[in-house]
Amino acid sequence: MTTRRTVLISAPAWLAAPPALAQAFPGKPMRYIVPVPAGGGSDFIGRTVCERWGKALGQTFIVDNIGGGGGVIASQTTAKAAPDGYTLMQGYVSTHGTSPATRRLPYDPVRDFTPIGMIGGTPNVLVVNPSLPVHDLKGFIDYLKANPAKASFGSAGNGSLTQLVMELFKQQSGTFMLHVPYRGIAPAFTDLLGGQTQAMFPGLAAALPHIRSGRVRPLAITGNSRAPTVKDVPTMIESGFKGFDAVQWYGVVGPAGVPAPIVRQLNETLTATVSAPDMKEKLASEAVDPMPMSDEQFGGYIAAEVARWTALAKERKIQVEE
User: Fold this and answer.
1) Residue 156 above 60 pLDDT?
2) Which of 53, 74, 161, 236 has a beta carbon 3.0–4.6 Å from 244's, enabling a disulfide?
3) If you average pLDDT over residues 194-207, what whole number do you get?
4) Per-position DSSP letters for 58-100, written without gaps between them
5) Cα(206)–Cα(202) distance, integer angstroms
6) pLDDT at 149
7) In whole angstroms, how far apart are CA 156 and each of 46, 280, 292?
8) Looking at the structure, do residues 295 and 278 belong to the same domain, yes or no?
9) Which residues lie below 8 Å from residue 112, measured CB to CB, with a gap of 6+?
10) Are 89 and 57 in a shared domain?
């Protein structure tokens, strides 16, 4: 089912473009598609960025929530829009990374879009039920090898980042766990807390409340450095997993063919927006760290994400049939 909600975010009147520049970009309200229903972390990120970004551009953003199909409907809508810079979408790791790697989609994540820029990302954290007799990553690996096929892990669904990161861990550690897919991260956590599953690799924002309450035990986190909110949790890299990284990232894309001058203007203002110190504080509530990039860098990042997860999906024989 497709869920949708549209909200108007306006820039102050004094920031509006003067009449002499009426034909300059942007000369009319802009549409910002968020590929999930209103509410939740991804929607919060989009609205937070659009509020500040609209001020930088001197224009109004219309935030348009188009849920359904795991982001497919929003992605198709964006890809088919006029490439004039007035329709943008908050692409993220699912729409432009893991879904293309594990599903047949009616769009190409690289060819059908213009990369605008990166917003930021949150790391994934390996957590276990506290009843498990392990307190660090080495102990967890030893437990899995000593108890083959006795442990299971939950995920937000088949082909989701939470599944693929754990599959990467299983591949690199030489261990096995049964995969139990759920329809979203909330029910996956319900069964992890209840002991029906033993482990999960969720995004840090989703895991933080349960880590702080002591209902799950964190063992390691992705990324090149430790997260300030869980500074005692070592990274996978420092725990011996060279190059092990995964990010629940969020960026901005438009339909293919947006003119280069418009892309440059959008990228420069987006980069300034996400680089502001107070924006870092706002995004921290979702455990998101700003990751400003040029449009070229972001395009390369998307292509690399699709390639790495596609390779893993093929090696682990992960293909989601709709």
Assistant:
1) yes
2) 236
3) 96
4) TS-EEEEEE-SGGGHHHHHHHHTS-SSSSEEE--BTIIIIIHH
5) 7
6) 83
7) 21, 27, 27
8) yes
9) 75, 79, 255, 256
10) yes
20 and 101 in a common domain: yes
Quickly tell me which residue has 């063992």 as its tokens: 219
Say if CB 251 and CB 119 are below 8 A apart.
Answer: yes
Q: What is the CATH number for 114?
A: 3.40.190.150
Q: Hey, which residues does 303 pair with through a beta bridge? A: none
The phi, psi pair for 127, rounded to 5°, reads -125, 150
Q: For the segment 65-95, what is each residue's pLDDT rounded down to a tens digit?
A: 999 889 999 999 999 999 999 999 999 999 9
Q: Considering the entire predicted model, what is its pTM?
A: 0.90
Please count the residues of the chain: 322
Q: How many domains does the chain have?
A: 2
Would you list the DSSP string of 183-207? Answer: SSHHHHHHHHHHTSS-EE--BHHHH
Spatial separation of the C-alpha atoms in residues 154 and 201, rounded to whole Å: 8
Q: In this predicted structure, what is the pLDDT of residue 148? A: 87
DSSP notation for 273-297:
HHHSHHHHHHHGGGTPEE----HHH
Q: For residues 251 and 92, give the distance between their C-alpha atoms in angstroms, rounded to a whole number.
A: 6
**Token pair 């997260």 is at which residue?**
227
Task: Give the pLDDT mean for 91-100.
Answer: 97
pLDDT band at 23 (very low <50, low <70, confident <90, very high): low
Q: In what order do the strands lie in the sheet with 199-200?
A: 178-181, 152-155, 199-200, 125-128, 217-221
pLDDT(18) > 80: no
* Helical axes 260-275 vs 295-315, angle rounded to 10°: 80
pLDDT at residue number 321: 85
Helices 204-213 and 185-194 sit at what angle, rounded to 10 degrees? Answer: 30
